[in-house]
């Protein structure tokens, strides 16, 4: 490596290798090839959020009257939809339910996954490779083919129409995902650390809690955030297993309770969609890198 | 892996007084127990139960009896079922191709040296982060038959003179749900492929340019082959989740108009939960499994090829 860089005459080497050869492109070409498509992509991908926000803030008479009021800006912004949502519907309860369910299933899945990932990756018992493969396959089983038998089961267990039904069924897709992610993370921790501890007489439990877990905090955060987002966004189980309004989660509640007959309360619907997205978006904005790491990690491993 | 096993044997000589708790298998089993118990009860068992339900006439509130292949015979003669299979394949194939093409394009753009790159990367992932149902509600409003902002914009520009009936017309409805699905899927494809693009060394491109390769040749003979293992995996995930999609359709059209957008997942839900025919719904869900298996096998061979390419044994 050094030899190669030394061979390049001084002053001509690109200061930053990530720049690659883009300095060869002329500006007009870059505008057409890079900036213009990027602007279009950004506009299309973000427009629905903008439209959601604007609609949530418009009073009802402005919402459908594009000729007398600018459609792209609320001329007299109002909080009436948000007020209606928070004080005249069960929305706060749905938020609370979603939070409880997401936290409960995330904690449950993380705990089970840490042990499983450690066992597969480091204890290396007979058949651990096949278990790893089985975990990966379990991740590929979609909720759309499980919801009918699970509905039958939750009914038989007597937890139908309760938050427990969701807390127990969400780990079906969270545990495989978290285990897979943590396996990749544990693999990156040097084996030598563990060997030293084994030589010093530490038990497996001590190695896991005193060495592996403190070192894998970033991996745990990635898995936790992703699991929380997945359970916050889950829809088909929540739609199938929950009947009563007070147990619904935000996605189900907004869709089934805010749409009454033919009168769509667009303002309230948009406000509900916006507020329901806010927690995951906030979480995401604080931990973007962890989130991207878990998303790409799950695919790359 | 073989090395690790040898090392372990050196480090952990089998002690004569080794108790059961120190044996590898036992420790492994105990650590696996919580996850294993969960997955067996809530994943493996329901999978089997689902297959069994497909052979029964179970309804909501009534245990069914074994009726053999009757559900499948009914489905075989059910034109709505075949329409849903067609719709699902159309939806999956069209949406996946568009997601792949646009996602790869976006990934290539984001791989350029850009100002505020990490900001763009973070913001463009938003459609994937936000709950699908909630963004689908936004699309529902955008696709409104009277007050759609797209129709309004196009009328203002003089392209059309009547609002487009996005979700009321068969062809339009299909195109609209595919567009919404693509909108949500592009960021996932783009960001994961971007992670792969960043591992390709720029020196390869520099060497190719010195040899006189054009931009297209560099893309075709360097970028694409280096990326293809990752593409295989990403697209398998994408195909799998598009094929079993439920939320978007349920919000936007519930299968209508004239069942033009009914997917197998939504048909299964409609027959099983509002319709009460759990057995028939389960049979439709089971009919999805062969397609999913094909996708998973594809993924498996994609992964194998990648390991082989890297020269790794494990």
Automatic annotation (TrEMBL), chain A:
Per the record, membrane topology reads: Multi-pass membrane protein
TM regions (residue ranges): 31-51, 94-120, 132-152, 164-186, 207-230, 266-292
Q: What keywords are annotated for this sequence in UniProt?
A: Cell membrane, Membrane, Transmembrane, Transmembrane helix, Transport
- Where do the ABC transmembrane type-1 domain residues begin and end? 95-287
The answer to whether UniProt assigns keyword Cell membrane to this entry is: yes
Known InterPro entries for this protein? BP-dep_ABC_trans_perm, MetI-like, MetI-like_sf
**Which CDD domains does the record associate with it?**
TM_PBP2
Q: Which domain of life is it from?
A: Bacteria
Would I find Cell membrane among this entry's keywords?
yes
The cellular location(s) given in this protein's UniProt record come to: Cell membrane
The UniProt entry's sequence similarity note says: Belongs to the binding-protein-dependent transport system permease family.
Among PANTHER family, the record links this protein to: INNER MEMBRANE ABC TRANSPORTER PERMEASE PROTEIN YCJP, MALTOSE TRANSPORT SYSTEM PERMEASE-RELATED
**What's the name of the protein?**
Carbohydrate ABC transporter permease
> Could you tell me which species this protein originates from?
Microvirga splendida
Automatic annotation (TrEMBL), chain B:
Protein name, please? Carbohydrate ABC transporter permease
Task: Please report which protein family the annotation says this sequence is part of.
Answer: Belongs to the binding-protein-dependent transport system permease family.
Q: Which organism is it from?
A: Microvirga arabica
User: Transmembrane segments in this chain: where?
Assistant: 27-47, 89-110, 122-143, 149-168, 180-201, 221-241, 248-269, 281-303
Start and end residues of each ABC transmembrane type-1 domain: 85-301
SUPFAM superfamilies given for it?
MalF N-terminal region-like, MetI-like
Keyword hit for Hydrolase: no
Q: Where in the cell is it found?
A: Cell membrane
Q: Which UniProt keywords apply?
A: Cell membrane, Membrane, Transmembrane, Transmembrane helix, Transport
What Pfam families does its record include?
BPD_transp_1
Stored PROSITE patterns: ABC_TM1
Question: How would you describe this protein's topology in the membrane?
Answer: Multi-pass membrane protein
């Amino acid at each position: 490596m050094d030899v190669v860089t030394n061979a390049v005459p001084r002053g001509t080497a690109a200061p930053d290798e990530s720049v690659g050869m883009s300095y060869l492109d002329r500006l007009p070409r870059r505008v057409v090839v890079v900036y213009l498509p990027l602007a279009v992509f950004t506009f299309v991908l973000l427009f629905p959020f903008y439209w959601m926000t604007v609609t949530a803030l418009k009073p009802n008479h402005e919402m459908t009257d594009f000729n007398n009021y600018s459609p792209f800006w609320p001329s007299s912004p109002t909080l009436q939809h948000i007020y209606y949502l928070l004080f005249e519907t069960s929305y706060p309860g749905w938020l609370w339910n979603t939070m409880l369910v997401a936290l409960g299933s995330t904690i449950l899945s993380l705990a089970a996954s840490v042990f499983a990932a450690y066992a597969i990756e480091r204890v290396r018992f007979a058949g651990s490779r096949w278990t790893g493969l089985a975990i990966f396959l379990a991740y590929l089983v979609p909720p759309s083919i499980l919801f009918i038998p699970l509905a039958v089961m939750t009914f038989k267990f007597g937890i139908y129409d309760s938050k427990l039904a969701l807390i127990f069924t969400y780990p079906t897709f969270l545990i495989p995902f978290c285990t897979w992610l943590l396996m990749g993370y544990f693999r990156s921790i040097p084996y030598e650390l563990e060997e030293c501890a084994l030589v010093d007489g530490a038990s497996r439990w001590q190695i896991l809690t005193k060495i592996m877990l403190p070192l894998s905090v970033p991996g745990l955060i990635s898995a936790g955030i992703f699991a929380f987002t997945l359970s916050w966004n889950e829809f088909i189980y929540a739609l199938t297993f929950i009947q009563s309004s007070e147990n619904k989660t935000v996605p189900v509640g907004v869709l089934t309770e805010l749409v009454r007959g033919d009168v769509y309360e667009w303002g309230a619907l948009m406000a509900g969609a916006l507020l329901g997205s806010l927690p995951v978006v906030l979480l995401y904005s604080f931990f973007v890198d962890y989130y991207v790491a878990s998303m790409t990690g799950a695919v790359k491993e | 892996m073989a090395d690790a096993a040898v090392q372990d044997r050196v480090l952990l000589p089998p002690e004569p007084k080794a108790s059961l708790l120190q044996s590898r298998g036992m420790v492994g089993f105990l650590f696996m127990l919580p996850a294993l118990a969960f997955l067996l009860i809530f994943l493996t068992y329901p999978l089997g139960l689902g297959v069994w339900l497909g052979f029964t006439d179970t309804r909501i509130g009534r245990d069914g009896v074994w009726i053999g292949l009757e559900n499948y015979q009914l489905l075989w003669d059910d034109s709505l079922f075949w329409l849903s299979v067609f719709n699902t394949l159309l939806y999956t194939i069209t949406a996946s191709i568009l997601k792949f093409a646009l996602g790869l394009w976006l990934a290539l753009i984001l791989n350029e040296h850009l100002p505020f790159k990490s900001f763009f990367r973070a913001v463009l992932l938003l459609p994937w982060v936000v709950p699908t149902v909630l963004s689908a509600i936004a699309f529902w409003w955008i696709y409104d038959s009277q007050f759609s902002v797209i129709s309004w914009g196009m009328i203002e520009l003089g392209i059309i003179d009547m609002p487009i009936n996005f979700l009321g017309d068969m062809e339009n409805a299909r195109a609209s749900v595919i567009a919404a699905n693509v909108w949500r899927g592009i960021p996932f494809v783009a960001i994961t492929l971007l992670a792969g693009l960043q591992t390709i060394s720029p020196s390869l491109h520099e060497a190719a340019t010195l040899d006189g390769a054009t931009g297209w040749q560099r893309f075709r003979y360097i970028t694409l082959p280096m990326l293809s293992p990752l593409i295989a995996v990403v697209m398998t995930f994408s195909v799998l989740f598009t094929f079993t999609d439920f939320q978007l359709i349920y919000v936007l059209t519930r299968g209508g108009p004239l069942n033009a957008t009914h997917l197998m997942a939504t048909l299964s839900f409609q027959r099983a939960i509002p319709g009460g025919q759990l057995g028939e719904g389960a049979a439709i869900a089971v009919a999805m499994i062969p397609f999913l298996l094909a996708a998973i096998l594809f993924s498996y061979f994609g992964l194998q090829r990648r390991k082989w390419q890297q020269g790794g044994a494990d």
